[in-house]
Structure formats: structure tokens, C-alpha cells
UniProtKB/TrEMBL annotation:
InterPro entries: CTDL_fold (IPR016187), Sulfatase_Mod_Factor_Kinase (IPR051043), SUMF_dom (IPR005532), SUMF_sf (IPR042095). This is Sulfatase-modifying factor enzyme-like domain-containing protein. Residues 23-246 form the Sulfatase-modifying factor enzyme-like domain. It comes from the Bacteria. The lineage of its organism: Bacteria, Pseudomonadati, Verrucomicrobiota, Pedosphaerae, Pedosphaerales. It comes from Pedosphaera parvula (strain Ellin514).
Amino acid sequence: MNLEVSRASQIVALKLWRDNPNTPVMVELPSGSFLMGENEGDKFANDTERPAHPVNIPAGISISRDPVTVGEFRQFVPGHAPDEEDDLPVVNVSWNDAGAYCVWLSEVTERAYRLPSEAEWEFSCRANSRTAFAWGDEITPNKANYLYDESGIKVGAGHRMVAGTYQANDFGLHDFHGNVCEWVEDTWHSSYVDAPNDGSAWVKPMDLRRAVRGGAWDYLPRLLRSPWRDWDFADEKRDNLGFRVATNCRLSA
């Protein structure tokens, strides 16, 4: 394991590591509490983001710095997207495929990898912010990869960008807003009524609907907001939907 201590900002000192050159770069998250869900005064908020509720994220969780890339996924499925660049976020993978990658990654590294919970994902996305986006309430094309502004004018590239193209948030993480949507572990719930507050995944047995977060390259800005939520069936594949991984590994100082 390679361990590198760096700073993405003056707020959080980060621990970055990876198991080997072919596996995702991981960032150890700080522990903490945050308010998950609707931002007060957000005109785009909806009932899926309500009620806003406090969640505690424990120490010892690491999440991948970027969405899993095509090159990283090809270590598991060599023939996946043969004409695509290695450093693009992988897409056209189902929730089932993402879970299978986590199982494979756990086997080859002897470390338990998984998909992040919705709570872990939003905590990572917000990075101590309480605004629509990690940097504030306004978004521009130099901050994230999205296609149209709110008036319907095309402003984006119209395709995926290389992972890490845009500035990291204050936890040192990339692409939580736009580029590709991301699968998380939770099944779909249409609101946060009775949601857990310990950061764990909220899973309803036998439900084939899985939560999706983050917004994508072909979306409007309102769908890139930190609390935005959606879902898809676990076997669905889309050209704007990928994933990132998490683990409960706690690193030594």
C-alpha cells in the first residue's frame, strides 16, 4: 500500500492511498456529522430530499477519489469498452456489475471493497459545505461537466471528461457534480422518513430499485446539486451512469 499525505485545502488534511497501480486511488474521509438532504431555500428541492436529517459518519471510511475508470474496470472485464480511453469514468455498467467489481476487487486486494452508502456519498460530495454545490450555490462549466444551463442553452462538452478534469472538493474528491451519475448501495426510498442516521446503507430486501446520485454530462445544473437523488433498476446500464467504491479500512497515521 502506498500512503501519501497531502492537502486539498486548508480545511482537511488528506490521506490518499491505493492497493496497487491498477486499483482506484482512495481517500480516507474525516469522521463527522452533517445535515443530509434538502438545502433550506433551494427552489429545486423536492420531497425525495426531505426531511433534511442529521447523519453521523464514523472514522475509518475511505472512498475512491474519482469514479472508477474504464482502465480500472478493464482489469476486471478486459473487453469492456475497447475503444474508450482508460482514464474516462466507466459507464454502461449496471448496479450488479458494480457490485461484482467490488467483489473482484476485494478478492485481488484482500480488502473489503463495496459501494458507498447514500449517506457516505452525500457527506463526501458536500465536503463540509451546506450549499447547492460543494463550492457554493452557483455553477459554471469550468466547475463541472453538464450539458445545458437552466435556460436550456448548451454550455457543456456533450460527452464524458477524463476523471479528475475538474477541481477537487475540500475532501480532495473529484466529479461528484456531473460527468457521470453514480450507483450507491441503497435501495430506493422516495423520502428520508425513517432514514438511518449512522451513515449505513438503507436497504429494503427484494427491492430491485437502487439509488443513483451525482448528475451527469447530459444533465441540467439542478440535477447536479449535492442533495439530488434518483434511482434505476439494478440491471440497467446507461451511457451516463458509473460508480465509485468505498471500504472501511482505517489507515495508520
